[in-house]
Specification:
Strand content: 25-35%
CATH class of the largest domain: Mainly Beta
Shape: flat
Distance between the termini: 99 Å
Structural class: alpha/beta
Number of helices: 4
CATH architecture of the largest domain: 3 Solenoid
Number of domains: 2
Helix content: 10-25%
Number of strands: 40
Mean pLDDT: 95
């Protein structure tokens, strides 16, 4: 079991230490579940009350607080938590070795320290870098390139010609490089447009479970360095996603759309084809994006609009039942008034 002094953790996360630097930490847990050798965390004043009840040995906090508990004061507790957890919790993978139940083409290139599990298929001219882990049931097509230290979880399908960078993580059931949705009508017939491009995934990308990233019609579909994609996301053909984007579950991105650097897309957003989204833009959940979004703009709603305006629209929507009653009452009064005026004119 790993064990670190509180002072070591404070240096790692760049925090200010208050209290005993020699406190020994063996793990990290929530306020409620932390034990006497655990480090816990508080991200806002809302949770400060929990510090008086926790059994933790110390806490990461967003500001100095009046509790006797040793503290590491940081600007962003979530960032500090992520760095500290890296000390204690590291993914454990099997290896190295190639299972007798895997099939690896004699023309494939396999790096040092690789683990290839049972029922994996590795096609001709595929290249798998050093220390790559390929879990059971993975299909690696002809000419695929996978960079060093990447992890491919069970039942991932990687079509021919796909390029995957270093330290990429692809979770179970994801399909990379299937044909883009390209068809054209010819009278009553629907013709398929051959998809002859590829998918390129840059370094340090993480892709969740059961995602689909389609190959390009021509050229490439690109996922930029450091981007993180949640489960059940569909990326259409020729989409270019910039570096360090966050795309949450059940998002669909239409073909040939472009996302700039550091874009955040919340859950269940639909982005139409050929849309451009500027650097640093943010899109709130369930939005329908049919037009370009500017740099650092925050939008939401269907149709899309500035997020603050969308919040006002939602607030008014909640009042619609009351408005309907008021409108019906006004209508009844107008009808009575018209009836009264009509009788007055006939006298």
């Amino acid at each position: 079991m790993s064990e670190f002094k509180l002072s070591e953790i404070a240096r790692l996360v760049g925090g200010r230490l208050i209290g005993d630097p020699e406190v020994r930490i063996k793990g990290i847990s929530s306020l409620e579940e932390a034990g006497p050798y655990d480090l816990t965390f508080v991200v806002s004043d809302k949770y400060l009350e929990g510090l008086s009840k926790t059994k933790a040995a110390a806490a990461i906090v967003h500001r100095e607080v009046p509790f006797p508990l040793p503290q590491i004061v940081v600007q962003d507790p979530y960032v500090a938590l992520a760095r500290a957890m890296g000390l204690f919790y590291r993914a454990k993978h099997p290896g190295p070795g190639v299972s007798e139940l895997a099939w690896v083409s004699p023309k494939a290139k396999i790096g040092q320290g690789v683990w290839i599990g049972p029922f994996v298929y590795v096609g001709e001219d595929a290249s798998i870098g050093d220390r790559v882990v390929v879990y059971p049931g993975v299909y690696v097509g002809a000419g695929v390139k996978i960079g060093d230290d990447s992890v491919i979880y069970p039942n991932v399908v990687i079509y021919e010609g796909t390029v995957i960078g270093k330290k990429v993580i692809i979770h179970a059931g994801t399909v990379i490089g299937a044909d883009g949705f390209g068809y054209v009508r010819d009278g009553e017939q629907i013709l398929k447009i051959p998809q002859v491009g590829k998918v390129e995934i840059e370094d340090e990308v993480e892709i969740g479970a059961n995602c689909c990233i389609d190959r390009a019609t021509f050229g490439k579909t690109l996922i930029g360095r450091g981007t993180k994609i949640d489960n059940l996301v569909q990326i259409g053909h020729n989409v270019h996603i910039g570096p360090n984007c966050i795309i949450v579950a059940q998002v669909g991105v239409g073909g040939s759309s472009t996302l700039g650097k550091g874009v955040t897309v919340a859950g269940q957003v639909g982005i139409a084809d050929h849309v451009k989204i500027g650097d640093g833009a943010r899109i709130s959940g369930k939005a329908g994006i049919f037009r370009d979004v500017g740099e650092k703009e925050t939008v939401g709603g269907i149709p899309q609009m500035p997020h603050k305006r969308w919040m006002r629209v939602v607030a008014e929507l909640l009042r619609l039942p009351e408005w309907r009653k008021e409108c019906e009452e006004v209508k009844r009064r107008l009808e009575r008034l018209e009836s009264f005026l009509s009788r007055g004119e006939t006298r």
